[in-house]
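I can't quite decide. Please look over this sequence plus structure tokens:

:::
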Amino acid sequence: MDRLKIQSQQDIYTDNGRMLPLMEEFYTIQGEGFNTGKAAYFIRIGGCDVGCHWCDVKESWDASIHPLTAADEIVKNAAAYPGKAVVVTGGEPSMYPLDYLTKQLRAAGIQTFVETSAAYPLTGTWDWVCLSPKKTMKPLVQNYALANELKVIVFNKHDFIWAEENASMVSTQCKLYLQPEWSKSKEITPLIIDYVKENPKWNISLQTHKYLNIP
């Protein structure tokens, strides 16, 4: 099905973003990429058709099993914490209209970050866009220019080629990260270290929250 058609259907399903299929929300420390170590409120939206075989939150894929939750309630919950940054993730958040959510978050003085494969047109107003491209459903070309950060998950050696293909599409100001897929981190991390030493435009991202045993 056409991606724009799917996104249009989601507009109706979510009352144009005023209701969202919420899988979970929690206050924690950002563990990956440029904003590692920052206190943030995470909003995980259910629903994803990108289908990464190594996904560690496959329970997020089926939006129907996650309750539609008022965006206003989500904003209220986020605002109760001292860290004034929200990370919207999934699932695949770009499937949904997020203009209303980000408008309300920003009105509450909260920074808005999104982590997305960018497989659908991005909606919402964002202080930081982390684009994490997936081979199973490539990002839309127009989304590359919006990326503040490119984070490529490395599962095998070919992913270094995939990373360079995507790096050629983002702006020169975009921060570049290579992150080992968790289940293969012992095997892949040494390869990433060597690659970054030879290609210093890249940085290493680790899932530090897993090492620290925090959500």
Remarks:
- The mean pLDDT is 95.
- Residues 3-211 form a domain with the TIM Barrel fold (CATH 3.20.20.70).
- The longest strand covers residues 19-29.
- The helical segments are 3-13, 71-79, 99-107, 158-167, 185-198, 208-211.
